[in-house]
Design a protein that fits this description.
- This protein has 7 helices and 5 strands; from the N terminus they run βαβαααβαβααβ.
- With 182 residues, the protein is an alpha/beta fold.
- It has a 5-stranded parallel β-sheet with strand order 3-2-1-4-5.
- Helix 1 links the parallel strand 1 and strand 2.
- Helix 5 packs across helix 7.
- The chain is globular, with a radius of gyration of 20 Å.
- The chain starts with 23 loop residues before the first strand and ends in a 7-residue tail after the last strand.
């Protein structure tokens, strides 16, 4: 055996300047416009980080909602009027308009806090776009913001449960306008 120093092995070159590193990406999937309390909570998760985060907001256009599940969710929360409204057919154009409005309001809330944010409206099932965006942005975590969904949350068919199964990175599920975790 030789005591000679080992030859240098090639490695990834380090960026010469801190500005060359890509900022950490956090993807936020929400079913409605984020409220100030939601954005404050999300931003507070990264308040002490050395690198500034960029945020990518995804809002699905819910044009194919599960009527039975939605009906039962509202009933479980004693929301009788909403339960009956859930049985009406979905207005596809209205769903897309609602999603665009929710996205615009959410982006404004991030921008008001001086945070870097982009976003898009996705199809009904946001999982394919979520997986693509995680890979594209090399995201470090996902935050999912929803209303409580008794059926999906109980049987782990909610977005957060699905995302945890396929992404392999931290997924935080919070309830909109509330400090409770989903």
């Amino acid at each position: 055996m030789s005591d000679a120093p080992a030859a240098d092995t090639p490695s990834e070159p380090e960026p010469e300047h801190e500005s060359e590193r890509a900022p950490a990406a956090v993807i936020v999937l929400t079913e409605e416009a984020l409220k100030p309390v939601d954005v404050d909570r999300i931003a507070s998760l990264h308040a002490g980080d050395e690198e500034p985060e960029t945020y990518r907001v995804l809002v699905p256009a819910d044009t194919k909602r599960n009527l039975l599940s939605t009906f039962l969710n509202h009933l479980s929360l004693f929301e009788m009027r909403e339960a009956l409204d859930a049985l009406k057919p979905v207005d596809r154009e209205g769903a897309h308009a609602d999603a665009r409005t929710a996205l615009a309001q959410s982006l404004r809330e991030f921008e008001r806090r001086g945070l870097t944010v982009t976003g898009e409206v996705t199809a009904d099932d946001p999982m394919p776009v979520l997986v693509e965006e995680v890979a594209r942005l090399n995201a470090r975590e996902v935050v999912i913001v929803t209303e409580p969904h008794a059926v999906e949350d109980t049987f782990h068919t909610d977005w957060a449960s699905k995302a945890r199964e396929v992404l392999g990175l931290p997924v935080l599920h919070i309830y909109a306008g509330d400090w409770r975790l989903g």
